[in-house]
Structure formats: structure tokens, C-alpha cells
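ok so for the tutorial part 2 we go from a plain amino acid sequence to predicted C-alpha cells. step 1 is just haveing the sequence, like this:
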Amino acid sequence: MMIKSYRELNVWQKADKLALDVYQLSDGFPKKYLYDLTSQLRRAALSVPTNLAEGCASPHSGELLQFINISRRSLSETRYLVEFADKLNLISPEKVTDLDRLCAEIGKMLPALTRSIKRQKE
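step 2 — the prediction. this is what the C-alpha cells look like for a chain of 122 residues:
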């Protein structure tokens, strides 16, 4: 699969939005969560678009597939941490719904990208 830039991928654009939303949202978390929940949530969310960008820089489709897989795992971690923050009443129900929808969209797009790359390898 020939990807000129990660920026052209719709899945990267959505993942970038997710990371930005999480950073902005977590700015409002109490300071007592700064070194655990806030930090972990931010790192997980930022890992989704970052690994897509890094994978797209590889000339080998196998490496790209590995980075997409890392993005999928980071997305799963992000979803759980959003749920956990919700249990602590740190996020409004509306924002939880928005983030969950965005995660679900990305969660469908990543396997589709994987399938597309594998088909082109054949």
C-alpha cells in the first residue's frame, strides 16, 4: 500500500482528533490524578495516531501492520481509561458518549486498513 503521508488517512485524522480531545478533556482532571490516570490516558490516546504516523514512514508493509496493531491496542487502552474516568465522575456523560463513538469509528477503521494492506501485499 502506497501511503504518501499519514495525514491522508481518515483513520489518522480521527485518531488525531481523539488524542486532542483527550488532552483537552484531561486538563480539567484534578491534580491528584496527574501522575497516574491523566498521564496514562494521554499516553494511550496519543499512541494511536503516533503509531500510525510511525508505521506510514516504513517502506515495509509488515512494519506498517505492526504499528497499526499497536494503535489498535492503544485504542483499547484509551477506551478503558475513559470508562474508568467516567466511573470516577471526571467526564460528563455526553463527552463519554462522544469519545466512545469516536473510538468505535477508529476501532472499525484500523482493521479495515489492515485488510486493505494485506490484500495489496498478495
